[in-house]
Amino acid sequence: MRARRPAYVLLEDGARFDGLACAAEGHAVGEVVFTTSMSGYQESMTDPSYAGQLITFTFPMIGNYGVSEAAMESDRIHARAAIMRAAVDHDQDGWLAWLTAAGIPAISEVDTRALVRHIRDQGAMRGGVFGGELSEEEAREVMLAEPEMSGRDLAREVTPPQMVTLDSVGAGGGPRIAMIDTGVKRSIVDNLRARGATVELHPCTSSADELRLGHPDAIFLANGPGDPAALDYIVSTVRQLIGQLPVYGICLGHQLLCRAVGLDTYKLPFGHRGANHPVKDLVSGQIEITSQNHGFAVLGPDGSHTIDHDQAVRWETDFGAAELTHINLYDRTVEGLALREVQGATVQYHPEAGPGPHDAVHLFDRFVGEIGGTMAGAAS
Amino acid sequence: MPRREDIHKILLVGSGPIVIGQAAEFDYSGTQACRVLIEEGYEVVLVNSNPATIMTDPEVATTTYIEPLLPATVAQVIERERPDALLGTLGGQTALNLSKALYEDGTLGRFGVELIGADYEAIDRAEDRERFRDTMTQAGLRVPRSMIAHTLDEAQSAVQELGLPFIVRPAFTLGGTGGGVVRCLEELGTIVGRGLAASPIGQVLLEESVLGWGEFELEVMRDGADNVVIVCSIENLDPMGVHTGDSVCVAPQQTLTDKQYQLLRDQAIEVIRAVGVETGGSNVQFAVNRDTDEIVVIEMNPRVSRSSALASKATGFPIAKIAAKVAIGYTLDEIPNDITTRPDGQSTPASFEPTLDYVVVKVPRFAFEKFPGADPMLTTHMKSVGEAMAIGRNFTEALQKALRSLERSDAVFDWHREWVELDKATLLEQISVPHDGRLKLVMDAIRAGATPQEIFAATRIDPWFVDQLALINEVAAEVTAAPELTPDLLRLAKRHGFSDAQIGKIRGMTADVVRGVRHALGIRPVYKTVDTCAAEFAAATPYHYSTYDEETEVMPRERPAVVILGSGPNRIGQGIEFDYSCVHASMALGHGEGGAGFETIMVNCNPETVSTDYDTSDRLYFEPLTLEDVLEVVHAEQQAGPVAGVICQLGGQTPLGLAQGLADAGVPIVGTPPEAIHLAEERGAFGRVLADAGLTAPTHGLASSYDEAQVIADEIGYPVLVRPSYVLGGRGMEIVYDDVALEGYIARATAISPEHPVLVDRFVDDAVEIDVDALFDGDELFLGGVMEHIEEAGIHSGDSACALPPITLGDHEIGRIREATEAIARGVGVLGLINIQFALGSDVLYVLEANPRASRTVPFVSKATATPLAKAAARIMMGESVKQLRAEGLLPASGDGGTLPGDSPIAVKEAVMPFNRFRQPDGRYVDTVLGPEMKSTGEVMGIDADFGRAFAKAQAAAFGSLPTSGRVFVSIANRDKRSMVFPVKVLADLGFEILATQGTADVLRRNGVQASVVRKHFDGPGPDGEPTTVQLIAEGGVALVVNTPHGSSGSGGSVRVDGYEIRTAAVRANVPCITTVQGLGAAVQGIEARIRGDIGVRSLQDWAAR
Known about the structure:
Chain A has 380 residues and is an alpha/beta fold. Chain A is built from 10 helices and 20 strands. Chain A is 23% helix and 31% strand. In chain A, helix 8 (232-241) crosses helix 9 (252-260). Chains A and B meet through helix 3 and strand 15 of A and helix 9, helix 16 and helix 17 of B.
């Protein structure tokens, strides 16, 4: 019989799920979350938004098609561990070898559905993947040493040490975009560059002046990990830029822009992570199937978590009116809004996919087009 | 958008009889659609010729017509009913073609009927090969290079452009009928010719070969606001070249990266938009070149399809229901997702894409053994007759569960099997051509040391699948090598789908012992839920599957439960009819309106059926119907609450075969007890029951060797009917006329069923065969229906046309039949349904066989007599009496199917044969002659005031209308010549021109019927090019063929060869072919009725209210 290394997932509330260790030695702790996306495991593992988290894959067979450079969403793995029902590793240089080489523990043969149902009912919480040799008491100690996700600034851990400029792909002539890089995915940058934009990736601690230094046509707030409420330094930077430059944001960026105009965010019970969430575009009336990865969301105008009707409700913000543009049809949470009196718009979901469907990728045309419109206006 | 208020009455067209390529899935989809439309307040008019469907239950639609699915007939329905709209996308290719025809002939326009779902333009863009290709090209999508051909010359010129091999696809056919692959120039004439003949418009598409590319399908749903979602992706294990219906399929797709998959998704959405299917489901098929990442669009079905049914069952997303809702105007976000709807009414909308946390595998079930000589090679022409689906938490588990769901011992992987020392090279050679046993040979090749790359090179099966097979083999090797069966090892094997029986075989123990060990160790499956969302939301719908994991989701319950065992994959002899009975039991016993108040629990593994719809029963277990799997379900439910019993009587032979094992394990079986089942099936015991009742069976004997059989045959005299014991659908049954044929049969039959001996019966010649379905409550008999076969005894009852009420039997005979039925039911100890076959010859009533279970004819009898037999049976099984059911109104207050009033309509059932699907390796069709081995895949019903009209309708529904003029070719066996004279004379008087072979023509002439002599096929064309019969038929010069077979089946001779050539020519040319004298008599009556021109349409509700 092949050597099998027992391992287990232990959650903060004591729930335990047994399995077999299948990648790097050692343990991993952090927030245990799940994604329902059926493909794109490598994209997820390398998505900086998963920093500090252990990913439970609801899709039961993970590793089917190996790994490739094309599926990297950043230069390395950010998730702390992979939790799976079945790990598939048929190549010598396949999925598990890749995790092992990066020092990432993984566990397979877990009743992931039971784990997901537990998180769904009890909420995402701290937990870890531990080798069978470690007692639950020891495991618990390690786990509790890890800070909780609420109030956590993980952006600093994934942001680049210094500014990097990436030229547009192809013809160019598009806008220059200063991105506050709280852990941006390659797909976002690629989508902007493919539309002619030059993209500056700034450390998240950059000041408003530093961001303005290259004379950007717009500010872009990236996706990223952690609690937006812990990033007030970015929020105050953004406040200085709103109204001066168009500001756009995706995911964490959406939450930061909202906080910057005075709206509030809250932690979802277990987040939205997957590639099948229906989002209605309230401007076009179309429903798009979207890629999602967030644990926090923006409160509605009356402070409610959900919006009852498919209507473009308005917030009064510190920068004038904001209007709901996108709504999640699963749980009716805010998925996007536009500032009406200054230039800026954001979405909570991931129009860049990576992984996930391309239904919303046209949003980059809209954003880049709007920025281009401002440029044309400025030139005339 | 709210529902449409401008339409009130909607016409829905079903798919007709079950044929290969179009099966029970369209009952499932049509039933869902009817229910939705009725719920929404529309009047629904339904037309379908298939009585064995739930959709044709009179309470499903507002008005139900069991009428032939022909444009003229449906036009009559339209004229009578004046619907506002026609929904033609839920009845398979048949309904789509009909919708198109009714549009083209102006019927829809004349009566102001709007095509909803897909309009005419969209249907045409998807179905017309040339337009589809142009549409795709304009949308920027790549399709295989192709050319349209209408002649062989055009096809010749295609070779240069497309290269060889190339694919032939006839336009407007279903299930790939008439399609094929031209691999060399020599094959071009045959294969293209066949395709041209199969296409109703004489058009074929010749296409660049994408053989060996990966095959993928996406199920797409679109609403009127242009919202599009992908319900499911399906990947075929067998690469391009094998029809998807014949492929092993997995859902969702497994081997594409996210980037590759998203490209397919984008293209699928492009396709539905470009074709312009406004609302509803479509299925888009792609080929993906695994080396170059090229994607080509293969085809698109602008309708609900077989794959949609699979996708619905695989995901829990009810495609047909949603398709019906979007067709009447709703947008996807206005439709709640039933599965996630909670008791408080909260739910998520249907505008999403299901995500799966399990793996679904579908495997085809073939029936090549039914068609001796048929080529088992798999091509683009579908040949499987059914399918099984299984769900697991990994591929290996799902695959092994699916394979054992097929209920064929030769389908499951078997390491104990005598290891034939085949070398790797031979195995690689054998698997290079797809055929029905390939998967097991791939496993053998792995055992013989072939690498995934070598197997990929030979088969083009993606290495991922080969790796998974290798994983199963590794686990088997561990189980083989382990010194003892440890808990870890057992758990490992179970997690990879090994059954107790497989493990037992490897370890040299029985399945019972393995089960005992497993239970002692506490290793049992848990049950997870199919919930469309991978547990992201709480789901209240108990649609379960087993797996070896930690947490079970079976909820406790208060009400006592009844477990209904379904019938597994469709096969010849056990099809949708049994599903019908199971569904009815669920309705009758549930706690809905008119139900007995039990919690109903369905166990089945057939994705095509209504029984596996998540809202048919209170709980659904999508599980193989093996003893192990059923025992585990029963155990899980016993943990959840009281279980009143298990019903084994309604799903055909499959659950019946499990009854004894379940009873032995202490499971309560309701209805006829296993001992009684045994009594009816064991010949000796049954003989005593008959003797006690003073009834006669044809003389018979039991033989376990050829010598024994020969002695018995000598005693009772040839011809004899030989068959293995314990059979359904006449499996392995044959009439033999001499010692040689008997010896040949014994050699083959012993291979079929080694445990059981062979029965040798006196074959009752020239007798009328009678089929009876009856209810018995232990005291009172309710004669459901007495059916008189149109063909004489010797043709399998499932293949024989029959009439109800019986057309030639008098009250006296029915009285005798009633007495005999009651005596047998009482003697056997039936509680519920019994089906008995009698033969009445020379005034002797022979009992041929008795089956203490629901029969194939239950739905037909129920529809013909407007009495829900299966519902009543279920209630009787749970302890109610016929008297109580009469009082309640479920059964008529007085009388029964044996005392139908004089003005009752006559219903005729006709069987539908799949002969056009099967060819010999040389490309010729298999013989179409009928015998005691059942060959039909489905049935139709014709109902009208008299036999002639009812028969004409049944023929029209099964084969197309009987001719009213033209030439009739007659060639008849000597023994039939006397009885043929009169009907042929009538045909001549009706204006038909009679053609005959020399011998038949002479007899006719002597009896005053002029007949022109045509050359026999065997003699070849005449000196001046006079055509042979076969040529005449092939050229379309004959409107009707009458040919009764000569001599025994199985042996050769020129006369027989001629008969074979005549019949297969008729199949090829789509000319009605009558093979019995009785059938000829019936056809003459039908033709007379057609010539009189008074065949109308009338709904079931109307008949019942007469």
